[in-house]
Design a protein that fits this description.
- By secondary structure, the protein is an alpha/beta fold.
- The protein has helices at residues 2-9, 28-39, 78-81, 97-121, 123-126, 129-169, 173-186, 191-194, 197-212, 221-237, 264-275, 287-297, 329-333, 354-360, 379-390, 408-412, 426-429, 434-441, 452-461, 472-484, 486-490, 504-518; strands spanning 15-19, 43-50, 56-60, 63-69, 216-220, 243-248, 281-284, 304-305, 341-345, 368-373, 397-401, 417-420, 446-449, 464-467.
- Helix 2 (28-39) packs across helix 22 (504-518) and helix 14 (354-360) packs parallel to helix 15 (379-390).
């Protein structure tokens, strides 16, 4: 009760409800935004999700985090719910029928075999001579018929399985025609047919947002844009003044789809286009992405740039009772202080160049590599470790888990090189990604691929080497160059002011100013009723 009273007494600039479509842990941008906004005097509730199990609640500084259990029945594709006559006309309908028919056909075959054997070994038990004669005649037909039926049922069951797989992949001509037809008929509203799973997010978050009665909704990325916009529309219709901030982390038409199918990009871009006009302000991660968003959605003003910068490193008192020591990256890798160590930190994936790093390792004598990733046990990471073992360098590749965002810079500073060998994808060209800033504050020499924005900044500051994306030999060259003369590159960090704006503290001020501007005419004494 005392805590509740203290929270109630604390002056608030307004209630901010932040939305994100993940479990919050591991999303440093969202965590920092919530924690810093609460520290600046906003009453912050951050809503995330869990895909299985029950939700839970905890505190990030003065911000409250609530994870909501997400149920996704609408994620099932049309082919997983209905027969697919155009894909596989002989397939059984979705459901238990295919398995039932296969088992039934096997049972028939077993019955025929048993009845044949009974006629040979126990004819008297079968019945009268006349019945046995009729039974023999029936089995003469039933044998081939049951064999044919088993093959026929097996064929139809395989057709069913293939139809289901094709229906989940959604990459065939039928799927492209389905997409094109709904786009033509419904335009921006086509997502309702192409990506109905977006309604599952609405039904998970909507009532919770309404109950919180926010003054401002901060929707992170494309899925939450629609959730936030619909909540703002409901609130405004009820007479409450609510502002909507859309935080666009990526340029959606240029992402590598999370699901490689014909519906994903058209469905989600249609959803984004429908609800972008409801945003009172747009926040994004770079000027280049801001330009693209303004052009695509006809925004009235340029999006506000809030960089994916890390917390400013500060000295900590190790004697404090709540001091949490930073794990030692080298200890986790099992190597000493003099072993050359190249680190990659962030979400893994083929387009991020981790495979290129593994292929380069045999050409880097004595060098170790560390992948700092959300789940070292994930299938993709385990595949990279197996590939390293095949190349004879398995003992020099290490996968270690994330640390809390406030420990990242110190954790990474144990390495010798920070590596970002990402491939050429539209979103990779236009922004300085989180790990770029984290490596910089860890004062690591960089090796980055020749994606546009990051390579330009790296060349201008002199903090690292640029290599050709997907070129293993050039990646080896760049790593060797940095390891041979690290001081040449780390000298860039001594330039006055270089790192000052690359901190979350600076970005938090930008976000606070935006909130304040949007709610400048808010009545602080207004009740949420």
């Amino acid at each position: 009760m005392e805590t509740q009273s203290a929270d109630a007494a604390r002056p608030s600039k307004g209630r901010v409800v932040m939305l994100v479509d993940n479990k919050v842990e591991g999303d440093s941008r969202v965590q920092k935004a919530a924690e810093s906004a609460a520290a600046a005097g906003w009453d912050v509730v951050l809503l995330g999700l869990v895909r299985s199990g029950n939700g839970r609640t905890w505190k990030l500084g003065d911000a409250e985090v609530r994870l909501l259990p997400l149920k996704t029945p609408l994620a099932k594709r049309h082919a997983e719910r209905h027969r697919s006559p155009l894909r596989r006309p002989l397939a059984y309908p979705p459901g238990p029928l295919a398995a039932y028919r296969r088992q039934w056909a096997k049972a028939w075959r077993a019955d025929v075999a048993t009845r044949r054997a009974a006629l040979r070994v126990a004819p008297d038990a079968v019945g009268s001579p006349l019945f046995r004669k009729a039974e023999k005649a029936r089995l003469t037909v039933a044998g081939p018929a049951s064999k044919f039926m088993q093959k026929w049922v097996g064929f139809r069951a395989r057709q069913t399985s293939e139809a289901q797989k094709a229906g989940r992949r959604l990459r065939g001509p039928v799927d492209r025609a389905f997409t094109a037809s709904w786009k033509a008929v419904k335009g921006k509203r086509a997502w309702r047919r192409l990506e109905p799973v977006l309604w599952d997010y609405e039904l998970t978050y909507g009532k919770e947002i309404d109950a919180l009665k926010p003054d401002l909704i901060h929707a992170n990325d494309f899925r939450m844009l629609g959730v936030g916009a619909r909540a703002a529309i409901r609130a405004r219709a009820a007479g409450r003044r609510v502002k909507l901030v859309w935080d666009a982390h990526e340029f959606l038409p240029g992402v590598r789809p999370w699901e490689d199918n014909a519906h994903w990009i058209p469905g989600n871009t249609a959803h984004e286009s429908e609800f972008a006009p409801y945003a009172d302000a747009v926040v994004t991660v770079s000027e280049g992405l801001g330009d693209l968003l303004r052009e695509r959605h006809g925004l009235k003003e340029q999006p506000t740039v809030v960089l994916n910068a890390p917390d400013r490193p500060v000295e900590v008192d190790e004697q404090l009772e709540d001091f949490e020591p930073v794990p030692d990256l080298r200890v986790l890798c099992g190597i000493g202080p003099d072993v050359p160590l190249v680190v990659y930190s962030g979400s893994p994936g083929p387009q991020r160049g981790l495979g290129d790093m593994v292929e380069a390792l045999p050409k880097l004598d004595g060098v170790h590599m560390a992948f700092v990733v959300p789940s070292p046990a994930a299938g993709y990471i385990q595949g990279l470790l197996r590939r390293a073992a095949e190349l004879g360098v398995g003992d020099r590749l290490h996968a270690v888990p994330y640390v809390p965002h406030w420990q990242v810079v110190r954790f990474l500073s144990a390495a010798n090189v920070g590596c970002i060998p990402i491939h050429h994808w539209p979103n990779h060209e236009i922004a300085l990604i989180t790990k770029f800033f984290e490596y910089s504050h860890a004062r690591l020499p960089l090796v980055v691929s020749d994606v546009k924005t990051m390579s330009e900044v790296t060349r201008s500051t002199g903090q690292g080497e640029v290599c050709k994306a997907e070129d293993t030999d050039d990646l080896v060259r760049a790593i060797k160059a940095v390891l041979a003369d690290p001081e040449r590159y780390t000298a860039a960090y001594d330039k006055p002011g270089l790192l000052d704006t690359w901190t979350w503290e600076a970005q938090a001020e930008v976000l606070d100013q935006l909130y304040t501007r949007l709610l400048a005419d808010r009545d602080p004494g207004a009740a949420r009723s």
